[in-house]
Amino acid sequence: MKQKTFKALAKRVRVTKNKKIMKRHCGQDHFNARASGNITRRKRRDNEFSTVFYKVVQELLPNN
């Protein structure tokens, strides 16, 4: 039977050309005025998933 993509995860992550799994930093939506400039700049970039989760993500996103 064909395996389906886990849509909740597919909406939150993207897989790059080199098979890195990227996600957004948490806490970007509001209350950012109180955060320091260093934290605000750090939140602009995407985060790479830890290598521990790669096997799980590959099972949940079979087409990537």
Q: How many strands, which pairing sense, and closed or not: the largest β-sheet?
A: 3 strands, antiparallel
What is the first-to-last residue Cα distance? 18 Å
Named CATH topology: Factor Xa Inhibitor
State the order of secondary-structure elements, H for helix, E for strand.
HEEHEH
The side-by-side strand order for the widest beta sheet comes to 1-2-3
Percent of sequence in beta strands: 5-15%
Q: What's the count of strands? A: 3
Low-confidence stretches: none
Please state the structural category.
alpha+beta
Helix and strand layout, with pairings?
Layout lengths: L6 H4 L2 E3 L5 E3 L13 H8 L2 E2 L5 H7 L4
Antiparallel strand pairs: 1-2, 2-3
Model description:
With 64 residues, the chain is α+β, with helices and mostly antiparallel strands. The chain has one domain (7-60): Irregular (Factor Xa Inhibitor), CATH 4.10.410. It is 30% helix and 12% strand. It has a 3-stranded antiparallel β-sheet, with no helix packed on it. The protein is elongated and about 50 Å long. It starts with 6 loop residues before the first helix and ends with a helix.
